[in-house]
Design a protein that fits this description.
Strand order of the largest sheet: 15-12-14-13-18-20-16
Keywords: FAD, Flavoprotein, Oxidoreductase
CATH class of the largest domain: Alpha Beta
Cofactor: FAD
Pfam family, one: FAD-oxidase_C
Protein name: Glycolate oxidase subunit GlcD
Number of strands: 22
CATH topology of the largest domain: Uridine Diphospho-n-acetylenolpyruvylglucosamine Reductase, domain 3
Radius of gyration: 24 Å
Largest sheet: 7 strands, antiparallel
Number of helices: 18
GO molecular function: FAD binding; oxidoreductase activity
Distance between the termini: 44 Å
Length: 498
């Protein structure tokens, strides 16, 4: 990725910058347009901070009508658009382009409706993930998907990346908790998909939009499912002498028919970093740590905890601590939630990866990562959603040492190749963005990728929305629409063509 290439800037767009800025100010008056270089610096990168690019101009709309007019204007004048939420993306999904309008949705930050009877909340895309839970917790409700960045990441960004979190094993990813969206298409048209109802007929366009990384439209409103808090929730800290034993324990817990509310795993470097940072009470004499949360009626939770303890002992667990209060349970999770910033204290830089594997392959992949660590001479701290196999290896490096960033990227690419080789996928929740763009052929063949691009063409024929992301090579829509003629003969010539 060090040789990262972005779409070539349109000279005509750059030459018209002053005119474009003036036109956007007509649409979004006041302080809604940012064009000064120093002020745009705040938007030059997302969470993948190794790569920075100033946008053509930044625009912060406040109404759906403004979003619609901006997109229609850009469509009519062939101006590229990069949507952005809170900018916490770790795959470069919100990385600006030098000739593109950066459409920032952070001012869409209101909760529009809370419907407890139907157990839904209607929110604008700039509302933070944690903000939804805080708005409903006084009535005993919460929003289940909880990424580690939940205090900052926006619900619109969660939809774009299909974010998960520690509780996604039992309660699902964003896709399982979003019931409807309002979105603006690149031509300015505003449409609704889904709603308060649990399902709708026709094509699953809502599922298509969730995880589409800003390539198909701009979300302007989200209807989410809210859940009642369980009667009881308790967490168990289980320490193991090896990551392989911890990984096998994960497989055995699921194999026993137990679906924990959350099940996370950390290895020794991550455990020590998190404990030094948060003082959560983690054991420091283990190589791997599982945090297993059971929730539901108290009698059921007690029974499941006993089962988990037994399975853990069979897999060689040396430590087993059960939370005895809500404060202790939250302390256990505080260490896990703070693992990323905690690791930042033990290394000048780290590269956060995201891949997903079948649970049964955990021991094999963890062993493979150790071998890769020795090969590249870089340390790696592992923090991941063990229950659904979503790995988050943190590769430690020093960007001030020439070549170390490139080495970290090569290490990360090999981890993702390993994930695909064992039957996994390139991403679980961070998205492809620019980070994994060149690795897409590892998972998809040319036919697969062309079909995905056809979907892109159906929504955005001019390729104006977030170009340069996800696809290693983007064909023109007209190229994909051509019929293939072999030796003068059409395929299936008997089929009527219109």
């Amino acid at each position: 990725m060090s040789g990262l290439t972005l779409p070539e800037a349109h000279g005509a767009t750059l030459a018209r910058r002053a005119e474009i800025v003036a036109d956007l100010r007509d649409i979004v008056p006041g302080e809604g347009v940012v064009d000064a270089v120093n002020e745009m610096r705040a938007f030059e990168s997302d969470g993948l901070t190794a790569y920075r690019q100033l946008p053509l101009v930044v625009v912060l709309p406040e109404t759906v009508a403004q979003v619609s007019r901006i997109l229609k204007y850009c469509h009519e004048h062939d101006i590229r658009v990069v949507p952005r939420g809170s900018g916490t993306s770790l795959s470069g999904g919100a990385l600006p382009l030098g000739d593109a309008v950066l459409l920032v949705m952070s001012r869409f930050n209101r909760i529009l409706e809370i419907d407890y009877a139907n157990r839904v909340a209607v929110v604008q895309p700039g509302v933070t993930n944690l903000g939804i839970t805080r708005a409903v917790e006084h009535e005993g409700f919460y929003y289940a998907p909880d990424p580690s960045s939940q205090i900052a990441c926006s619900i619109g960004g969660n939809v774009a990346e299909n974010s998960g979190g520690v509780h996604c094993l039992k309660y699902g990813l964003t896709a399982n908790n979003v019931l409807g969206i309002e979105m603006a298409l690149i031509n300015g048209e505003v449409i609704r998909l889904g709603g308060k109802h649990l399902d709708s007929g026709g094509y699953d366009l809502l599922g298509l939009m969730t995880g589409s990384e800003g390539l198909l439209g701009v979300v302007t409103e989200v209807t989410v499912r809210i859940l009642q808090k369980p009667d009881t929730a308790r967490a168990v800290l289980v320490g193991f002498p090896s990551s392989e034993e911890a990984g096998q324990c994960v497989a055995d817990i699921i194999g026993a028919g137990i679906i924990p509310g959350g099940m996370e795993m950390m290895d020794r470097p991550a455990i020590h970093a998190a404990e030094d940072f948060v003082h959560a009470g983690y054991p420091l004499d283990v190589e791997a740590l599982l945090i297993v949360e059971l929730d539901g009626p108290e009698i059921e939770v007690d029974h499941l905890i006993a089962m988990v303890e037994e399975i853990a002992r069979r897999n060689g667990a040396t430590t087993c601590i059960v939370s005895q209060s809500e404060e202790e349970r939250m302390a256990f999770w505080a260490g896990r939630k703070a693992a990323f910033p905690a690791v930042g204290r033990i290394s000048p830089d780290y590269y956060c990866m995201d891949g997903t594997i079948p649970r049964k392959e955990l021991p094999k992949v963890l062993a493979g990562m150790r071998e890769l660590s020795e090969k590249y001479g870089l340390r790696v701290a592992n923090v991941f959603h063990a229950g659904d196999g979503n790995l988050h290896p943190l590769i430690l490096y020093d960007a001030n040492i020439p070549g170390e960033l490139e080495k970290a990227e090569a290490f990360g690419a090999d981890i993702l190749r390993l994930c695909v080789q064992v039957g996994g996928v390139l991403t679980g929740e961070h998205g492809v963005g620019v980070e994994k763009r060149e690795l897409m052929p590892e998972m998809f063949n040319e036919t697969d990728l062309n079909q995905q691009i056809r979907v892109k063409c159906a929504f955005d024929e001019k390729h104006l929305l977030n170009p340069g992301k996800v696809f290693p090579q983007l064909h023109r829509c007209a190229e994909l629409g051509r019929m293939h003629i072999h030796r003068g003969q059409l395929a299936f010539p008997d089929i009527p063509r219109f």
